[in-house]
Amino acid sequence: MNFASRACAVVAAIAVAGSIAGTAPAWAHVHASSPGAVRGNFAMVTFEVPNESPTGSATTELTVTLPDVAAARTETKPGWTARLDRDAKTGVVRSVTWTAAPGAGIGADQFGLFQIKMKLPDTETVDFPSAQGYADGTVVRWDQSPPPGGGEAEHPVPSLHLAKGPAQAPEHHAQHPAPSVSAAPAPTDESQAGEHPGGHADNPARLLGGAALLVSALAAAFALSRRRA
């Protein structure tokens, strides 16, 4: 390799090293996750918070701004207390703050998981601007949008991409509703005739009744004639 080639290789190596040093790894950022989250539905959102203090100071507070959700509930986390900032009139939850107990917190080379169940908005993307507080008083705000030219911001805002829910089939209404169907057997001609006056199904019964009355009358007349005799 000649001198020119070596010089180009050194310059390229320096450029790559400089770009790596100036860009923080993506896993070191605060980010939100919620697998299968659907617009307008309830979901469990997890915030992963790494310790990024250059001095090794512990993370002792995390405040996450919520998109004015109608309902929210935090998970019990040992060593931490959670407080919801709720509007007294509307009940809308605007933010949540986790605070570490004395002696607790996220130490160097550690990360913490903070979970909250909430009703997501009916939008394609939802952002959660966050503020990470350290024991030494340092506060890092994660609220930057991606730069116009592409790439990643220095302190990107945690965000979620929400999926659409299952499509609901439209309701179809018939212009002429079908006649109702009964499970009872269809009536026969004889039963129909018996249900209406003037039918023919009850003629034999009437004849038998008349004959019985005639026989009774004849028997009464015969008995009366014998008494007179």
From TrEMBL:
Pfam families per the UniProt record, alphabetical: DUF1775
UniProt protein name: YcnI family protein
Domain of life of the organism encoding this protein: Bacteria
Family annotation (Gene3D superfamilies): Uncharacterised protein YcnI-like PF07987, DUF1775
Keywords per UniProt: Signal
Signal peptide: 1-28
Disordered: annotated span: 138-205
Annotated ranges, domain YncI copper-binding: 29-162
Biased composition (Low complexity): 176-187
